Amino acid sequence: MYKIFLFLLFPVFLSAQTNVVKGSVTDAGNGKVSSADITVYNLKNELIKTLKTDENGHFSLEGIAVDSIKIAVKKADYAPFERIVGLQKEKELLKIILKKETQEIEAVVMTKQKPVVTRKVDRLEFNVENSNISSLNAWEILKKTPNVTINNDVIAVKGGTGILVTINDKKVMLTGEELKNFLENTQGDEIKSVEVITNPPAKYEASGSAVLNIIIKKNKIEGYRGIVSSKYVQTQYAKGVAGISQYYKKDKLSLMGSYYRGFGTYYREGTDYVNYQESQTRWVSTMNRKDKNNAQNTVNFNAEYEIDSLTNLSLNYSGYFSPKSFGTCVVPTLIYNSQNIIESDYTTINDHQSRTINNSLSFQIDRKLNKKSSLSWISYFTGNNVDKYQNVLTHLNFAGQTPKDDNFFTQNKADVKLYSTQADYQWKGEKVELESGAKYSFVKTKSGLDFSDNENGNLQLRPEKSSIFDYKEHNFAVYSSLAYHLGKWNFKGGLRAEMTDLEGVVSEPYEQNKNNYWSLFPTFYAQYTTENKHEFGFSYGKRISRPSYSWLNPAKSYYNLFSYYQGDPKLKATIIHNLNLTYSWKGWNLDLYYRKEIYPSMEISYQEPSTNNLIYYFTNIEKGQAFGASLYKSFQIKPWWTLILSENLEHNENYFKGTDDLLYKNKVWNWVSNISTAFTLDKSSDWKIEAGHKYYSPGIQGTFTISSAWSAYFVMNRKFFRKKLEASLIFNDIFRTMGQKVSTKYANQDNYFLDYSDDRSFTLSLKFNFGNQSVKNARTIKKTDEQDRL
Q1: Is the model's pLDDT at 22 over the cut of 60?
Q2: What is the pTM of this model?
Q3: Any stretches that span the bilayer, and where are they (predicted)?
Q4: Which strand (E) or helix (H) includes residue 785?
Q5: Which helix (H) or strand (E) holds 11?
């Protein structure tokens, strides 16, 4: 009976047989290439198995249960090889020919190793994995990313500010100095790529003029491995970062954890000049600010688990803790009369400290519904807490008055909590792709300012100068987008609808601001590729830039007796229209763009003659618009020599109302040039050097006119001990030329400040790899019951 049963099942066994492919690897001269690494993937780019060629250059692929595969072959001194293979068609011996990649020049072996720029229909991808700049931190990598500029620590994309920074598509709830510190402590060797999304598709929240998405690498190596790293930075004063990253992958579980601790002294110098026409006086203040921070802690943890072949779970936590940043700065101010003679002076002694805590936790589920569709759900929580304290003592020596001292204290606390949940559905056919989803987020902030001064030797709280600001914002969004592939054409369009419900309450003087509105945000993309691989693209997107929560706080944060910062709870959201025309061919990337901003919000300054106050505040100007062109090209001059050219030319206009209630126009042609060259001196030790130069021509920001600046840098990397130890030397702002002048001059406003952020630095970094550093013992991925049901 069992023989009959086996006979009946024989066709089933026959149909379930796996494919066998045999092949050989040779060089261009038909020489046998032994011990070449062969990696096999399915068409979803999922790893199937790895193996090596034998001494005769032969290999055999067995147990392959799919009809088509992608085979990749790598061997030292040869260019990588990739090919899609249809197993039903490959009945004969598969012959692979590898081409030589390196050449010897004056006994120095060199090879190419550069970041790769890829133009996609809706974004520009800057792949930095294993490149010359992967030894830098995330902040420095952003400075080298195409279309991105960082000037005075403000991130801009094609001149537009208000950038949304995300890591693996999750919003980073940090701004200003906290965001910079976080990115400086994010190591470049953990970064796979940076996506520059000028017109983000409907899937992304509409906030921000553009999105910079930093993609962190996933662990694909079986077993355990780790990285110990340290970095010493010498600017005016010393800084350092040390930490460890650990990875573990076994079967369905993948874990990653890292901890970095930074410390050091931060220095900034500047001089303020204020000219008062009414009193014919000139006020000059000189500041040399030195802050110490002995503990900047950055923690990351990620766990991924494959429940079955259709369902993946991931849990991610990231934290940034800076328990104490502190310093004391002495700021002398000289007051000159119309004869340029010093008639008065005062000196401010500012003793300050701050604390920052940021926590982010996310949970994600991805589920394949069938062969064409999938569903994902992600929820995340972010909390940001900042506490700033300052004790300000002022020695006053004004003409005609008795010299005296003034003393005040302020404590500013801010707590931000964000909860977000989002569900996304994706359907992908041969020519059509559909994405749709919904998102809800809730933000709650509470800011408090306590102002006290010294009265007859006693500390007195001043309620009229203190304030509590509470802010709540609910945001609900639905979106849908459709992509269509038609031969040489790619189209994508989407629509996002967002409902915003906000409420802001100020305690002193009491004020309540409520608003509820719906907004529609359309996006459209088109891309055409010719037979010669010329790519032409067009895109349009409407965005909204909501003000940062700290900008909404109206409490006066005093720098000294005569200068303070103030937010505005009635700040309007900025509506942005982006229009782009793109062209790409053989590494050339050209982008022509136009940007229109309605009520852009920004920090500006104005002087108040009646009180001699210099006030910095966030406000909406009337409008802004810009048009320009950006160009990026990486030249492979020699196999060992690469030249990278990144240029951006823009005409920018800002319209604002002055203190006299008249409309003013600030305009400029702005040019940002970044030229770098890289050499690989020795392939066996990955010995590379890179030198570059960045130039900023004069720019504008509302009432501000910003002077030109330039910077030169040098980077050298080398690996030792079978590439387990990596050392890097980095010189930034070699000639100390990044100082800038920021001025305001119209009507009765005449002030400027000179600023230098201590950019000149020397950095020595060391990184040691231990544990398993290569893919080994990869097993054939077999179809599971769940996949069979798809």
Answers
A1: yes
A2: 0.74
A3: none
A4: helix 785-788
A5: helix 2-15
